[in-house]
């Protein structure tokens, strides 16, 4: 490696150099990922995402700057060549099929190799040779036909905005004009204290249909407190349509250049040779590439700038939020879970020691230690859980956007109201809840809410209403989606179900049971009950989604008045308390958050009615299910049984087992292989030195048993 | 004490810029933003005497930041240095047209940057 120049010396070379190496490694990692993505897009023959190319360019650019700063001239030179190719690509001077593009991967690999050898002098000569060779090959491969560029002045854009465009942004603007997209200017204002969230919402909404070429901030009407952003947007959506999509306050759209329908040969902008593959496959209508992922996740939030001595405070990045991959939290949670198991083992050892008078004093001390450990572990567990929790607000905001869009598309007036948006759920659950919840809300909008005339003649308000209420109940979160639409007619559902062969004619079903048939796969398909009863497609999918999360969904409805869909979910899947039960020689774990109580009963107390077994609990009949029957286990007849009363939302089921074997904190692990397919099993868990047991999927067992009852 | 705002997305570069500027003859307080958004949020919070910005950054680029500072009555008088990797002459020209007061090429000699910074700071010696 070339000798280090003096540039950085005074700035505390060693420390800074370590930072440089760390950051350069991050950049290389990101480049590898981006190049992989680029190669995927090229193979797929799709139009290459300009933001992706720009992101790789920025990486090379940063590498060049950093390497130069530290006097690694070889590295800097190589980065410079990379930057040239990428600059050519993003500015349309080099075609995507240029052989130089294939050398990018090679260059990044060489870079990485050089890095690991940094400081090894015997390697430096060889490194210089390899860099020299690669640079020569890149130079041969790359061409640089500079394009004459027309002025952008004729565009109706404030000169200030044009002047602030970087060369790359100018190129994107030209490129979009040559593709005959509309060029629009979106002006939007925010309070200066809280512009980021709003701005990123606007940008994200625009990126669904186009490209944000540049974002220029300027002082708002009240310069002290407001900030305005002018977004230069290229899209195939005309201004009026975009304006309908963007229902943000203080947002104004104007057309800078309307797309011309007929391609004029003497176009204002030159046809750049970039993205040849897209051009061949009918370029003009090719949708603008999805740009959401193009932003480089800068190191901003964690800014290491403050690591150097001196004025530490002043260098700290002002954001105090850290983004963490959820899987890292999973790992942390697993570790906590394993610690909890170790703790249980300690308790058992203490119990054994306590039984022997010679060691009972040690046992007492061990118990005390165990107790302290237990307290701290609980705190640790709660803290880790807390980190995973996010408020439902995020989903609710998404839902209101969807409803706004539906309103426009279907010109139907519907109010969407929320409560409990601060209710928190495990991030992973929230992610997986979006689809089913969206589904339920869409159904309510599409099918439940009547047209205006129908509503008025039914004596209802002109606009329909949908409410979403979330609340925490113990270890569960309940989300209810209510509407004041036409409701579901149980008789109509039943007719459909009979026609689909799901229910025998004459079978005895309560209205409630009939309603819940909408969650059956055969019923809620495309030819479902929409129109007559107000429920459409795919409610079975909703039930499956919920059940994957250990939750359930039930429906209640009053014909003519409205419908409520209630979803009950556990707060987290990560770590749970379980009740260990035994049947014969087999043991199972039941999540304690679904257990209402346990009862010890005589076999004679069990009542049989038709083919069901019932137990009278304080005057109410409780349906029983033998765990041995559920899984086909050997269970010798017993005089006494334990009943584990399971409760999920409104549903109750008594699970009959032989013995109770204590409570245990457990981390549920998913299981691979055939057992993973067994319905009623949610996973497996370890009981420290007591081996592994299967964890019961309460929602599946409760639902299946009640369905069997209905079908009986 | 005069205040300097550094806007730079590379942590290493940010750190280098800060340590370089902290060694100015007069004592200064250096604040750093890792992107244009952070800079926009920091600007109204402190009264800065100098802004030092990179050009190629995510979110909003350095030129857009220059444009914002120079088109805003509150900030117009704050001197501004663009520190950017050599390469795009056009972007450099634009930065100067937009009102940037100086341009320093990366890799920079610490002494050279300090000279430019000191010069701009002493032109506007009284903190507003």
Description:
The complex is a heterodimer of chains A (712) and B (128). With 712 residues, chain A is of the alpha+beta class. Helices cover 43% and strands 22% of the residues of chain A. Chain A is built from 21 helices and 22 strands. Chain A has a 6-stranded mixed β-sheet. Chain A has a 5-stranded mixed β-sheet with strand order 6-8-9-11-10. A 5-stranded mixed β-sheet of chain A has the order 20-12-13-22-21. In chain A, strand 15 and strand 16 (612-617) form a beta hairpin. In chain A, helix 3 (73-90) runs parallel beside helix 5 (121-141). The longest helix of chain A has 31 residues, at 13-43. Mean pLDDT of chain A is 77; it is low at 1-12, 262-319 and 525-537. Chain B is built from 5 helices and 5 strands; from the N terminus they run βαβαβαβαβα. In chain B, strands 2-1-3-4-5 form a 5-stranded parallel β-sheet, with helices on both faces. Chain B has a single domain (2-123), classed as 3-Layer(aba) Sandwich (Rossmann fold), CATH 3.40.50. Chain B is of the alpha/beta class. The mean pLDDT of chain B is 86. The interface between A and B is large, with 63 and 58 residues.
State Rg of chain B: 13 Å
| CATH classification class of chain B | Alpha Beta
Q: Could you give the count of β-strands of chain A? A: 22
CATH class of the largest domain in chain A: Alpha Beta
Report the mean per-residue pLDDT of chain B as an integer: 86
Number of helices of chain B: 5
- Overall geometry of chain B: globular
What name goes with the CATH superfamily of the largest domain in chain A? Histidine kinase-like ATPase, C-terminal domain
Radius of gyration of chain A: 32 Å
**What is the CATH topology of the largest domain in chain A?**
Heat Shock Protein 90
Q: Please list the strands of the largest sheet of chain A in the order they lie side by side.
A: 14-18-19-17-16-15
**Low-pLDDT windows of residues of chain B:** none
Q: What fraction of the residues of chain B are assigned to beta strands by DSSP?
A: 15-25%
Number of helices of chain A: 21
Kindly report the greatest chain-chain contact and the residue count on each side: A-B, 63 and 58 residues
Helix/strand-derived category of chain A reads alpha+beta
What class would the helix/strand composition of chain B place it in?
A: alpha/beta
The total of beta strands of chain B comes to: 5
CATH architecture of chain B: 3-Layer(aba) Sandwich
What's the assembly state of these chains? heterodimer
